[in-house]
Design goal:
Blueprint lengths: L5 H29 L2 H8 L4 H8 L3 H14 L3 E3 L4 E3 L2 H7 L9 H23 L12 H21 L6 H7 L2 E5 L5 H9 L4 E6 L2 H13 L6 E5 L10 E7 L8 H11 E12 L11 H19 L12 H11 L4 E7 L3 E7 L1
Parallel strand pairs: 3-4, 3-6, 4-5, 6-7
Antiparallel strand pairs: 1-2, 7-9, 8-9
């Protein structure tokens, strides 16, 4: 047995204690969200456990323990003189403000989904087979939409579309757009509200998600220029499209090359394919960072098994990188490809025939 370096051991134990603390915080953060505790602290300011309990109609004893955990985690601040807990504005952006670009409550929902998927993934690890999107935890669809929505809300219209060549002008004049892999339709609705002269059709292969997307469109009053249909990415109907969008879904597809070929056939000669994918480098060395850590976890538990369950089963994974994605897009018949924009979480690609 090799000699133990006590310093390295203690550092690793400390790291794992932090990881375990974060993992055990997941249900507590979700309780804070579902019971409106963060929202109450954000709206009302510092409160004692008794005040928070009265404000949110929960038991004071539970309020005290929850608040103590949140303070120990650094999620809340505690004033020993007043006995009050507060939600700092920076933490509020992450935990309470659902329109913030760094709102991460959806990530905690995804963590629970991945825990529920563990029983499905253990046999898949041994067999090499996939686990279908519709077979996974039913929380997955809502959690994924909630996780990605803040990025779309804060970047899609403001910076991603303007980074594309002449696309905004077309949308303002009136374009026909297919939003493929639309899920619950958050991206589609954001686009439809911003460009009322254009027509948006959302496609997804999961019928339950399409129903939710239709409800979302009704809720936001954009049914006049949107519709949603169940269709595969390699088979969705439509010709002479001005724009096709794929938001965080190309890497999930079993046959991404087939999808690329179909997009190429569906676009006008001067049309654009916008592909939003998780930010990633081409080598593992480039991806040993906190953001990629999250994406590799989701890729292992959700993206790769979803792709392996479909025909071809390319299993690109959520950290495929620009090189691998470019090969897929080029094989699909696109000659012009560039990275138009990037955030810490996403890269935005523009493909043209």
């Amino acid at each position: 047995m090799k000699a133990i370096d006590e310093t390295k051991l203690n550092q690793f134990v400390g790291q794992l204690l932090g990881d375990l603390g974060g993992a055990l915080s997941v249900p507590l953060v979700r309780l804070g969200d579902r019971l409106g505790l963060y929202q109450a602290l954000h709206a009302e300011g510092p409160m004692t456990p008794a005040e928070l309990a009265a404000r949110t109609n929960i038991a004071e004893r539970y309020a005290r323990e929850w608040l103590s955990h949140q303070a120990a985690s650094g999620y809340l601040s505690y004033d020993a003189k007043t006995g009050k807990f507060s939600l700092p504005p920076e933490q509020a952006m992450v935990l309470a403000d659902q329109d913030s670009p760094v709102y991460l409550q959806g990530g905690f929902d995804l963590a629970v989904t991945m825990m529920e998927n563990q029983a499905l993934l253990e046999p898949a690890f041994r067999s090499g087979k996939g686990v279908g999107w519709g077979e996974q935890s039913q929380c997955l669809f809502c959690a994924a939409g909630r996780f990605f929505r803040p990025g779309y809300l804060n970047h899609l219209v403001q910076s991603w579309l303007p980074a594309l060549d002449q696309v905004v002008a077309k949308l303002e004049q009136g374009a026909t757009v297919a939003d493929v892999g639309c899920g619950h339709g958050f991206s589609t609705v954001i686009l439809a509200k911003a460009f009322p002269r254009s027509t948006f059709i959302g496609y997804d292969f999961h019928a339950g998600s399409v129903e939710q997307a239709r409800a979302h469109a009704r809720e936001h009053g954009v049914t006049a220029n949107t519709r949603f249909e169940v269709a595969l990415a390699s088979e969705f109907p439509g010709k002479d499209l001005d724009l096709v969008t794929f938001f965080d879904c190309l890497h999930d597809m079993g046959d991404p090359v087939g999808a690329a070929r179909h997009v190429r056939q569906a676009l006008k000669p001067d049309g654009t394919w916008m592909i939003v994918e998780p930010a990633a480098g081409d080598r593992l060395d480039d991806n040993l960072n906190p953001v990629s850590r999250l994406y590799y976890a989701a890729s292992t538990m959700i993206c790769v098994p979803t792709s392996l369950d479909q025909p071809v089963g390319a299993a690109l994974g959520a950290q495929a990188g620009l090189k691998a994605l470019s090969a897929v897009i080029s094989e699909g018949g696109f000659r012009n490809l560039r990275k138009a924009a990037q955030t810490p979480f996403n890269m935005i690609l523009e493909a043209r025939p």
